[in-house]
Amino acid sequence: MSKKLYIKTYGCQMNVYDSERMEDVLRPEGYQITEQPDDADLVILNTCHIREKAAEKVYSDIGRLRPHKDGKTKNGEEMVIAVAGCVGQAEGAEMMRRAPVVDMVIGPQTYHRLPELLKDVKEQRKDKSSARVLDTDFPVEAKFDHLPKVEKAKGPAAFLTVQEGCDKFCAFCVVPYTRGAEYSRPSADIIRDAKRMASEGVVEITLLGQNVSAYHGDDGNGGETTLGTLIRELDKIDGIERLRYTTSHPTEIDDELLTAHRDVESCMPYLHLPIQSGSDKILKAMNRRHTGDEYRSTIGRLREMRPDIALSGDFIVGFPGETDQDFEDTLQLVRDVKYSQAYSFKYSQRPGTPAATDEDQVPEEVKAERLARLQALLTEQQIEFNSTSVGKKMKILLERPGKQEGQLIGRSPYLQAVHVDLSKENIALDETGNKAYNSFMGRMVEVEILEAGPHSLKAVLVAD
Ligand code: SAH
Ligand code: SF4
Ligand code: F3S
């Protein structure tokens, strides 16, 4: 009898990728995904530790699962609750103490061992011992060597992890502690995964890494491949029409990557390039290793290579010591760069990071006020960027059905969501007599943008 697996994913895209890999690891063990935690045999919470709120949510979700553990599942066994990901890594032992219903805690680098660890939990249950397992080992390499090959593609746009971990140690950030040292996968492994994905109908690949621009994988000839070169290699794969990568660090945008944006058609004109603050004093205190002007100059060079490139970023307001003037410098940088879209957060003190013990913390209400002002400016820029798309023709990849009959949703080259109403189009009927909209799924189509909202665009197909 098949067993049911429920996975909840918090945090970044790397966690989304990891959740899919956990599914791959558990499929041969007879587990199938369910959308409901209530009657699952195994629940995995794949957690995020980046800000306090994200981490605390995990404990409330565990509390909500507790009642389901009392009864037996359809297989006659007690539900197994596993915490994976970055909270597991950072707080494993404490979590075991604080949340007795948790059977297993694993870190981001040990989930390839899930089948063995599940056996351990079950063995220990038979012995009526405490039946709990903690596995938060490093390093990263072992995981990639032991994971099954990337299995089923979930849709035409997919993620592929190429690099993991971070050695940058920004003063606010937990990632170097939760994900470990930087590691790049060999280029041959990535190309093999990408070919397999293409053969399953994947059209767009987003290369993932906490620091993907630092990619320096073994090239199989005793040398290293950079991200720019990897993009050129992946571009040659039949069926792969779009390549994206995230997240990059401003100090690592090298010439090979810049010229890939100019020369490689599948390299999409969009870049997520976080700066965090526009103040040089704060950038230094954050240990970001570059100035505001160096960032501006990188953006300038990117725009020389690809004038239409859309830029996104991350910002932290209220980092310790941030004055009104420092914050004004951030607003000025945003005005200078003009983002298509960006993420912004209030600084959150994270245990174990250098900035957490800084005495010059910014009061909560000041952070809230700055965040509101920054977000108002970013929203204005997003609306402005979207409105410049109206009347333009562009190719989009149709990825999923929309809420309305005949509506499909895709992404523009600039990562905007585009809604296309196919119900008015002259589309053939399928064997059941319905219009064959779904045959458009996973296809690249040319559209004309009709309308722009803050979060999405509306478009019609352009006849070939
Ligand atoms: N590797 C990426 C980002 C990883 S974390 C990079 O270097 O840019 C994603 C974002 O979360 C960061 O860019 C930052 O804006 C935000 N973040 C990280 N730590 C934070 C903290 N302690 N408080 C608030 N935001 C934080
Ligand atoms: Fe965190 Fe900085 Fe590394 Fe990004 S570069 S993951 S913000 S330490
Ligand atoms: Fe969160 Fe870990 Fe990603 S802390 S942002 S899930 S790397």
UniProtKB/TrEMBL annotation:
What's the catalysed reaction?
N(6)-dimethylallyladenosine(37) in tRNA + (sulfur carrier)-SH + AH2 + 2 S-adenosyl-L-methionine = 2-methylsulfanyl-N(6)-dimethylallyladenosine(37) in tRNA + (sulfur carrier)-H + 5'-deoxyadenosine + L-methionine + A + S-adenosyl-L-homocysteine + 2 H(+); 2-thio-N(6)-dimethylallyladenosine(37) in tRNA + S-adenosyl-L-methionine = 2-methylsulfanyl-N(6)-dimethylallyladenosine(37) in tRNA + S-adenosyl-L-homocysteine + H(+); N(6)-dimethylallyladenosine(37) in tRNA + (sulfur carrier)-SH + AH2 + S-adenosyl-L-methionine = 2-thio-N(6)-dimethylallyladenosine(37) in tRNA + (sulfur carrier)-H + 5'-deoxyadenosine + L-methionine + A + H(+)
What enzyme category does the UniProt record give?
transferase
Q: How is the cofactor bound?
A: Binds 2 [4Fe-4S] clusters. One cluster is coordinated with 3 cysteines and an exchangeable S-adenosyl-L-methionine.
* Entry-linked SMART domains: Elp3
GO molecular-function terms, A-Z: 4 iron, 4 sulfur cluster binding; metal ion binding; tRNA-2-methylthio-N(6)-dimethylallyladenosine(37) synthase activity
- Catalytic activity, EC: 2.8.4.3
Q: Boundaries of each Radical SAM core domain copy?
A: 152-384
Annotated [4Fe-4S] cluster 2 binding sites: C166, C170, C173
Domain named MTTase N-terminal is located at 3-123
Family matches, as InterPro entries: Elp3/MiaA/NifB-like_rSAM, Methylthiotransferase, Methylthiotransferase_CS, Methylthiotransferase_N, Methylthiotransferase_N_sf, MiaB_methiolase, rSAM, rSAM_horseshoe
Q: Which cofactor does it need?
A: [4Fe-4S] cluster
Q: Name one Pfam family in it.
A: Radical_SAM
Q: Where does [4Fe-4S] cluster 1 bind?
A: C12, C48, C86
Q: Where in the cell is it found?
A: Cytoplasm
Q: Which GO terms describe its cellular component?
A: cytosol
Keywords per UniProt: 4Fe-4S, Cytoplasm, Iron, Iron-sulfur, Metal-binding, S-adenosyl-L-methionine, Transferase, tRNA processing
Task: Kindly state the subunit structure of this protein.
Answer: Monomer.
Query: Could you say which protein family the record assigns here?
Result: Belongs to the methylthiotransferase family. MiaB subfamily.
The job of this chain, per UniProt, is described as:
Catalyzes the methylthiolation of N6-(dimethylallyl)adenosine (i(6)A), leading to the formation of 2-methylthio-N6-(dimethylallyl)adenosine (ms(2)i(6)A) at position 37 in tRNAs that read codons beginning with uridine.
Protein name as it appears in the record? tRNA-2-methylthio-N(6)-dimethylallyladenosine synthase
The beginning of the lineage is: Bacteria, Pseudomonadati, Pseudomonadota, Alphaproteobacteria, Kordiimonadales
